[in-house]
Design brief:
The chain contains twelve helices and eight strands.
Length: 329
C-alpha cells in the first residue's frame, strides 16, 4: 500500500472554518464483507478494528448533549458492529435521523436476515453503494457476484417500502466512477439509473449521489502504482469550483473513528489528520461534551480538491445548488 499523505500535504487549497455542528459521522469499524477497489477506508473481511461499547455509549451521550440532527453510520460495513442496532435504536429514541451507509450485500450475510426489517422499523435512511446499473461494471469494481446480491438487497428494501413514494422510507444510491475521472452530472445519471433499474429489475429509489473518488488509501495507492496520481490531482485542481466551498460536508459535520478520535471528515480520518478542537492535539469524542467546534479551522490538504471539483462531492452527493436541495430532502 502506497502512502499518499506525503503527496497531499503541500497545498494551496483555501482555508475554511466549520459552521454549526449538525451531523456526527461515526465509523464503527473497518471490517467489511467486501474489498472494493475505490474504497478510501481500505476496509475488508480481515480488518479487526471495531468500535467498543464504551465508545458507542459516548456517541449516544454526545448526540443527546449537543442535540445533533443526524447520525451518519459508516464502516467498513457498519452493520457488522455488535453495537450497531443498539446505537440505531438509541439515536432514533432521541429523535435523531440515522443514516446507514449500506453496501447492500450485507443484507445477504448469515445472521443478517432481519437487518432490512430492523432498518425499516426504525425508519433509518439507507444510503446504498451501487456504482453502476451494469453487472459487469459493478463486479469489476466490487467483486464477482456483487451485482446480483446488490439487486437482491434493493428488491428486499423495496418490498419493505424503501424508495417507494409515500412510505417515508428513504433509499438513496451512491455512484463512484470506475477510475480516475470525475463523475458525470448527477441529475442526468440519476435519470439513467432510475430508468434502467426500474425497467430491468423493478427497483425504485429516491436519489442518486454521485461521489468523486478520493486519492487516499486503496484508490490513492492504485493511482500511485499506475503512475496516474499526479494527473488525477491535476484533473481535480483544474475542475475546482469556489462556490462549492460553502457547502462541503466538513462545514457542518465531524467524523469519529472507531477509537473515538475526531476528524474533520472521513478522508482526513484515513490520512491520520485529526480535527482541531481547542488546544487538543488529537481531540476525542468526549470533548464535544464541553467544547463547541463551530468556528474551528478545518484541516486541509490537496485531497480537498476532490470535494470541490466540478459539481462538487460530499456524502450527500453533488454540491451544485440545485443538487444540494435535492440531496437534503
Amino acid at each position: 500500500m502506497h502512502a499518499t499523505l506525503p503527496l497531499l500535504t503541500t497545498t494551496d487549497f483555501p482555508a475554511i472554518q466549520r459552521h454549526s455542528l449538525r451531523t456526527l459521522q461515526v465509523n464503527l469499524g473497518y471490517r467489511c464483507n467486501q474489498s472494493c477497489l475505490h474504497c478510501h477506508v481500505n476496509a475488508g473481511p480481515h480488518r479487526t478494528e471495531m468500535m467498543d461499547g464504551q465508545t458507542v455509549d459516548m456517541v449516544i451521550e454526545v448526540l443527546r448533549a449537543r442535540r445533533l440532527a443526524t447520525l451518519d453510520l459508516t464502516g467498513g460495513a457498519p452493520e457488522l458492529s455488535e453495537h450497531f442496532r443498539r446505537l440505531v435504536a438509541s439515536a432514533r429514541a432521541l429523535g435523531v435521523e440515522v443514516i446507514d451507509r449500506c453496501n447492500l450485500t450485507i443484507l445477504s450475510e448469515p445472521g443478517q436476515d432481519d437487518l432490512a426489517a430492523f432498518l425499516a422499523a426504525h425508519q433509518v435512511q439507507v444510503v446504498a453503494s451501487m456504482p453502476c446499473y451494469s453487472p459487469a461494471n459493478v463486479d469489476r469494481q466490487r467483486g464477482d457476484g456483487v451485482f446480483d446480491l446488490s439487486i437482491t438487497g434493493l428488491q428486499q428494501l423495496n418490498a419493505l417500502g424503501y424508495g417507494v413514494p409515500g412510505t417515508g422510507l428513504t433509499l438513496n444510491l451512491v455512484y463512484n466512477p470506475q477510475g480516475a475521472s470525475l463523475p458525470p452530472p448527477q441529475g442526468v445519471l440519476e435519470a439513467d439509473y432510475k430508468r434502467e433499474l426500474l425497467q430491468h429489475f423493478g427497483i425504485q429509489f429516491n436519489h442518486l449521489f454521485a461521489l468523486t473518488n478520493m486519492p487516499v488509501q486503496r484508490f490513492g495507492s492504485t493511482l500511485v502504482s499506475k503512475g496516474t496520481f499526479g494527473s488525477y490531482m491535476q484533473l481535480l485542481r483544474a475542475a475546482f469550483e469556489a462556490e462549492n466551498l460553502q457547502t462541503v460536508m466538513c462545514r457542518s459535520m465531524i467524523s469519529v473513528d472507531w477509537q473515538g478520535d475526531l476528524y474533520d471528515c472521513d478522508f482526513n480520518q484515513m490520512l491520520g489528520l485529526p480535527a482541531r478542537l481547542g488546544k487538543a492535539y488529537r481531540p476525542q469524542l468526549r470533548e464535544l461534551l464541553q467544547s463547541n467546534p463551530e468556528g474551528e479551522s478545518i484541516r486541509i490538504a490537496d485531497h480537498c480538491y476532490g470535494c470541490t471539483a466540478g459539481q462538487g462531492s460530499s456524502c450527500g452527493g453533488a454540491l451544485e445548488p440545485a443538487e444540494v436541495a435535492q440531496a437534503t430532502q
